[in-house]
Design brief:
Strand order of the largest sheet of chain A: 8-9-10-5-11-12
Shape of chain A: globular
Number of helices of chain B: 10
Order of helices and strands of chain B: HHHHHHHHHH
Largest sheet of chain A: 6 strands, mixed
Structural class of chain A: alpha/beta
Radius of gyration of chain A: 18 Å
CATH class of the largest domain in chain B: Mainly Alpha
Distance between the termini of chain B: 51 Å
Helix content of chain A: 25-40%
Structural class of chain B: mainly alpha
Largest interface: A-B, 25 and 22 residues
CATH topology of one domain in chain A: Rossmann fold
Radius of gyration of chain B: 26 Å
Strand content of chain A: 15-25%
Number of strands of chain B: 0
CATH topology of the largest domain in chain B: MetI-like fold
CATH class of one domain in chain A: Alpha Beta
Number of domains of chain B: 2
Largest sheet of chain B: none
CATH architecture of one domain in chain A: 3-Layer(aba) Sandwich
Oligomer: heterodimer
Order of helices and strands of chain A: EEEEEHEEHEHHHEHEHEEHH
Number of helices of chain A: 9
């Protein structure tokens, strides 16, 4: 593959950092994902769009094994794992999955901050106890990212004292403090009051423009237009269409993509 | 003054508001008067019945009242130590009941089913009178504690299991996404939140334990009930003796219920809510 220059962040890496191959997922007899392939290169931002129930969140959750795929292969940062629907994971596999999760940090729709810990302790918990960093080193990294999301003054607050937008920015800082290779965003603004969406989108745009590698499941077309290098439209567990946002969002080829976008943009 | 003028914010208050407040106050004090009058009348009838049947003998109370009251120390000691061990058993039991390992889950479920399906009194007898036949002899105080902790541990296992399951699923997913192992996420994320959920229930169980600890009097532990029935029987003053015991239990449970209520209130106000 040839490295492609992108307008505002220089060269996209040549080798994919994340590769999903032939991902299938059944929930019971419900065929939710029907063979999805996805490659993400370093510094790229990918947006997954589609109706609720189209399988976009499930695909994201398969990428870090919050859901076990029924078939297919996940490779992230050189670690590859095949689906294992019949056999419980052995210790070696579980360690690989943990490594993959550490490289691909997830930001959730409902934030999932730890309510019994202060903001700073939310941020350093995993770096100290999972990555094995020293406490001071972890705090230094955490404070850097807290500043990046503009919440330095909330360092010692408990999550219950934060607004939804602040919680999500803390959740992003928590993911960044793990220093991952890829950020996975699962509808990060869907649980937010409309007036608070902007502050989270602003942080995500800044990340996209400064070279973070991101996969974003979202209904925010303005974000996709502004920040995505490629947009994938997913319907009934399959990619129907992908390409630069100008193409997929503004000039969709498939009639189903067109129908989805016209409903979404008409709101 | 027109009626509308009273609706201006910061303006003079409508006279009807004062009348409403006065009538609410009157209703409240009338309720309270009836409430306490009922307590007084019923307790007075009970007291009169005791006097009328010739069962009131102040000498007994002055002689033995203090002796019975001092049994409260042992009651509280046994209850405190038992609830401590019961809590440990409950955490282990709850993790077992949620385990995907068939052996561990089976053992934990058998424990809960067996203990909850048999009377506490049988379990106390078993520990104190049956185990010695297998060569296991336990002193009365530890025997009482073993039986109470074992029994309450089973009930509290189900409380802890519900508490662990009440921690939102997203907490576990967030911890897994951060690369935490099952052990670490249990210890650092799920259990601390589950404990906050179950603290009020543990408080309730402690108050129940204070009352249920009277059952260990059957193995000769000199707690409140043992003392009162012993001196009551030997002086033929069981009514007074048992009434004193009842009052001591009542005072203890009211005392601990008060603190439990305070604790719940503080948890509800805490920053660290779910």
């Amino acid at each position: 593959m040839i490295a492609q220059p992108t307008p505002d962040k220089g060269l996209v890496g040549a080798e994919p950092i994340l590769r999903l191959t032939g991902i299938e997922k059944y929930f019971g007899s419900n065929h939710v994902l029907r063979g999805c392939d996805l490659e993400v290169h370093p510094r790229e931002t990918i947006c997954l769009i589609g109706r609720s129930g189209s399988g976009k969140s499930t695909l994201l959750r398969c990428a870090n094994f919050l859901e076990e795929p029924t078939a297919g292969r996940v490779e992230i940062d050189g670690i590859g794992i095949d689906a294992s629907p019949l056999k419980a994971r052995n210790r070696a596999d579980r360690e690989k999955i943990r490594k993959i999760r550490m490289s691909a940090q997830m930001v959730f729709q409902d934030f999932n901050l730890f309510p019994h810990m202060r903001v700073i302790d939310n941020l350093i918990e995993a770096p100290v106890r999972v990555r094995g960093l020293g406490r001071d080193e972890a705090i230094a990294i955490a404070e850097k990212h807290l500043e990046r999301v503009g919440l330095t003054e909330k360092r010692d607050a408990y999550p219950a004292r934060l607004s939804g937008g602040q919680k999500q920015r803390v959740a992003i800082a928590r993911a960044l403090t793990m220093e991952p290779k890829v950020l996975l965003f699962d509808e990060p603004t869907s649980a937010l009051d409309p007036t608070l969406v902007g502050e989270v989108i602003a942080v995500m745009e800044e990340l996209a423009h400064t070279g973070s590698t991101m996969i974003v499941v979202t209904h925010e077309m303005a974000f996709a237009r502004e920040a995505a290098d490629r947009v994938y439209f997913i319907e009934e567990g399959q990619f129907l269409e992908d390409g630069p946002p100008g193409q997929v969002i503004d000039d969709p080829q498939d009639p189903r993509t067109r129908a989805f976008l016209s409903r979404l943009l008409a709101r | 003054m027109s009626a509308n003028a009273t609706l201006v914010p910061g303006g003079p208050e409508a006279p009807i508001l004062g009348q409403i407040r006065a009538s609410q106050r009157a209703a409240r004090s009338s309720f309270r008067a009836k409430y306490f009058a009922t307590w007084f009348v019923i307790l007075a009838i009970v007291g009169a019945a005791i006097v009328a049947t010739g069962n009131a003998e102040p000498d007994f109370t002055t002689t033995w009242g203090r002796y019975i009251l001092e049994g409260a120390g042992l009651t509280v000691l046994i209850s405190t130590v038992s609830i401590f061990f019961a809590t440990i058993l409950a955490v282990i039991g709850a993790l077992g009941r949620l385990s995907s390992n068939g052996f561990i889950n089976g053992a934990a479920s058998l424990y809960v089913s067996l203990v909850r399906g048999t009377p506490l009194l049988v379990q106390i007898y078993f520990v104190f009178y049956a185990l010695p036949q297998m060569g296991i002899v336990i002193d009365p105080i530890p025997a009482g504690i073993v039986a109470l902790a074992f029994n309450y541990g089973a009930y509290m296992t189900e409380i802890f299991r519900a508490g662990i399951q009440a921690v939102p699923r997203g907490q576990r997913e967030a911890a897994e996404s951060l690369g935490m192992t099952e052990r670490l996420l249990m210890r650092r994320i799920v259990l601390p939140q589950a404990v906050r959920i179950v603290v009020p229930a543990i408080g309730n169980d402690f108050v129940s334990m204070i009352k249920d600890s009277s059952l260990v009097s059957v193995v000769g532990l000199q707690e409140i009930l043992w003392r009162s029935s012993t001196v009551g029987r030997s002086n033929s003053q069981l009514i007074q003796a048992l009434l004193i015991a009842a009052l001591v239990y009542w005072a203890l449970t009211m005392f601990f219920s008060y603190f439990q209520g305070r604790l719940e209130h503080r948890l509800a106000l805490s920053d660290v809510r779910l």
